[in-house]
Amino acid sequence: MYGAGDVRVEEVPDPQLREPTDAVVRIVRSCVCGSDLHPYHSMKRRDRGAPMGHEFLGVVEELGSEVSGVRRGDLVVAPFVWSDNSCVFCREGLHTSCRRGGVFGGGQAEAIRVPQADGTLVRLPVAEDSALLPSLLTLADVYGTGHHAARLGRVGPGTTVTVIGDGAVGLLAVLSAQRMGAERIILMGRHTSRTDLGREFGATDVVAERGEEGVERVRELTGGDGTHAVLEAVGHMPAYETAVGVVRPGGVISRVGVPQYESAPVGFGSLFGGNVTLTGGPAPVRAYIDELLPDVLEGRVEPGRVFDRTVGLDETPEGYRAMDRREALKVLIAP
Amino acid sequence: MYGAGDVRVEEVPDPQLREPTDAVVRIVRSCVCGSDLHPYHSMKRRDRGAPMGHEFLGVVEELGSEVSGVRRGDLVVAPFVWSDNSCVFCREGLHTSCRRGGVFGGGQAEAIRVPQADGTLVRLPVAEDSALLPSLLTLADVYGTGHHAARLGRVGPGTTVTVIGDGAVGLLAVLSAQRMGAERIILMGRHTSRTDLGREFGATDVVAERGEEGVERVRELTGGDGTHAVLEAVGHMPAYETAVGVVRPGGVISRVGVPQYESAPVGFGSLFGGNVTLTGGPAPVRAYIDELLPDVLEGRVEPGRVFDRTVGLDETPEGYRAMDRREALKVLIAP
């Protein structure tokens, strides 16, 4: 990406091993993330392009001398953050704060260097042409991020939940809340094709209204109280304000949309008076893959249904455009 | 209180029962709260004074026809919020959001009307001249509030904790963190007499520096990472900024100082990037009295040590002045 709206496909040198803990992975599937749209809207023009893409699965091609957990030829998925899976933060399940971690760039490509390969890569027991690839790819980010939202939102049996946003993460937050036993899941979104999928994922109610009107609708649906958990999967200020408007006293606002603001209301009238908790952040998806993988492999959940368009690597710029125009929910890239 | 700095002692009509669920309590001990200092600094002048005081213990004098849980002559303590102790929020332990609740005013007085007496009043098994009265009075607010901070901060064995503020609530947050088994408790405060009491309550380290320098000190003490829990017992923006500066990735900022600001930094660089949770609010102290009372009765904790001055009711304005000038930590009123 060279600037807002300017995504190009270029020939670059092949990735090489640099550290003995590295691997090189040939990418089999990658995709465009909702968070890629933020720089797509606002990135300043630059002379050197930024390599894009942090979600991928692929086949291990080369291994550094210290890598022992995966082998050449293994099909693997990588979380969007690499991590050693052994530091104090990783042991606490906070791989996004790993002392040796970092965020991938350049996953929308033919191959990629993976630092901390042993801590990062998870072997997938399927073939390279498995029909499960789209769902398995969501373990790299969006499914784990939806799970993170629901988990930090303390969703469980008896919980009422509002999900703000009908993008891929919002829909997978619905699926995650349903999987954790939520009693009621209100999905706020305006795109019928998306909210229809949300209903299939477990949404019990859909609220298409936004702003004050949307808040009013959720309050009506909940006897005036709001919901125990609000999973905010957008990242813009109006979504935050809606979250504050629909959360129940004592409830939790769990944010996984990357905030496009720095300051927000947190005082007596917004969070404090009602003992509302604000939580969330980049999802340590590596911590969740072991838990989420079996349901995907056995077909009990199909998070890959969020992909509604597939492009080749050369068509990646068109994939960005389609997502930006809401013509596509989430674009799969098959290099 | 008629305005900032203007506290008067006046004769007013005796409180009367209004509802069958009311009681009238003759006040034996009350006190001045740190939160009373906020209007003491900023309240606009008004013609009718606002009755002050929300912490009291006393003797039941009159009972409405529907009150059955306490009797005339019982010594009782009241949480600073009255509540029915039976609505859906009370059953969840969130008495501050009780459907029939409200905040007391007029506890700095000889007597007070107590709505929802059955839900609100807790009988104290001691005599009216017990030496335990100061500690028992802290159950009305400050001890329960310190406990709330530590509880929402998920303090437990192995937890590292920073407490911001050496007022009564901050010191009782230290005591609460210690009682819950915190591994390390760093108290940020500048008043040696107070931080000395904080050490007796369990603080392992004291940081007198403020602002950037204070943040730096706490980071030095924690190998650069900050602490798992930050208990913020002040309510001003610099305290919030310090909290953001000293919290560990994945940690919790638990606020019990009433925020004197509405907006604050919550974006990627402050809370989101490190998966930091922001929680807190008015403490539902009624929910905690049953748990906290035994240790007080048996002398295992002495939260009443935060009172370092006692005045008669007529001297209440002087009590405000002393607390405002930091000459007194917390002022007990013996009408």
From TrEMBL, chains A, B:
Keyword Manganese appears in the UniProt entry: no
Domain Alcohol dehydrogenase-like C-terminal: residue ranges: 168-280
Keyword Zinc: yes
UniProt domain Alcohol dehydrogenase-like N-terminal: residue ranges: 20-124
SUPFAM superfamilies linked: GroES-like, NAD(P)-binding Rossmann-fold domains
GO molecular function: metal ion binding
Keywords noted in UniProt: Metal-binding, Zinc
Highest rank taxon of the organism: Bacteria
InterPro entries, alphabetized: ADH-like_C, ADH-like_N, GroES-like_sf, NAD(P)-bd_dom_sf
Cofactor(s) this protein requires: Zn(2+)
Protein name per UniProt: Alcohol dehydrogenase catalytic domain-containing protein
Organism the protein comes from: Streptomyces lonarensis
